[in-house]
Amino acid sequence: MANKTIAFIGTGNMSYAIIGGMIKNGFAPQSIIATNRNAEKLAKAHADFGVLTEQDNLKAVQQADVIVLSVKPQMMAELCQTFVDAGLDISDKLFVSVAAGITVKRLREMLAQDVKLVRCMPNTPSLLGRGVSGLFAADISEEEKAYIEQVFSSTGIAIWLDEESQINDVIAVTGSSPAYFFLFMEAIEEKAVALGFSPEQARALVQQTALGAAEMALSQQDISIAQLRANVTSKGGTTHAAVEHLKANQLPQTVADAMDACIARAQEMEQQI
Ligand SMILES: NC(=O)C1=CN([C@@H]2O[C@H](COP(=O)(O)OP(=O)(O)OC[C@H]3O[C@@H](n4cnc5c(N)ncnc54)[C@H](O)[C@@H]3O)[C@@H](O)[C@H]2O)C=CC1
Ligand SMILES: O=C(O)[C@@H]1CCC=N1
To answer: Of 57, 181, 233, 263, which residue is least crowded by CB atoms under 10 Å?
Structure first.
């Protein structure tokens, strides 16, 4: 199991992050193949992580035991068709798709056979070993499951899901949510600049505060997040004024609605792709 070869087909933002997490956590670079049409992206993956690189997807698939499909959802059918057209023997390969909005059923149609498959919904903090991945398995062995768990727990927290539909919930909660946090950080950063801080100061202030808040939550599991917020909020004080403004403008409901929009888009993609 430890000496399986894993190929990442379409090494862009997400695969780069997973590979980074794997390398940080001790996977051998020689057991990882990165592919991309773009030679510069491959050169970067090789320079940063020492992994093997290959521009020819078919060669990478042939050499690997585990194939991570990591192109944009709209590119997936075209990619899979190239495997079918080449008549590759993929019957014994384990496929992992990180794509949003493509079901197991649809992926198997694209690959023209009922391959062993894991749907994974990771997120980009995987690069730092701080990722979260939701995993849904379709017809894989216990040994394969253990390998996949080893890969994705090397990039952070990995949880197995009982129902495929939960992948869409994971997208809303963790796959897309780094962007929600970044948007919040961007808003504070922009206002800090408007208040007169230099862009460098604004960035330093916002990122340190975000990190501090996350580490406080992480290190004090016995205190609820609501309580951590209350601890900053003096009665009749400044934070209270800010938080009341956010609540009066429906921030919690807006976030919940945004997460529903995320899930609805994933479901819509499942019908379209
Ligand atoms: N970016 C994110 O935060 C997350 C992305 N995902 C999923 O990951 C997948 C990839 O997303 P990103 O990494 O963000 O996109 P990306 O565009 O950064 O990476 C995809 C890469 O695939 C390459 N590519 C396209 N067609 C190819 C082909 N036929 N052969 C070889 N390389 C090819 C492109 O040049 C590109 O560099 C998507 O399906 C997305 O749903 C899942 C969770 C989080
Ligand atoms: O935006 C997207 O569709 C992908 C899936 C989760 C994060 N990025």
So the answer is: 181
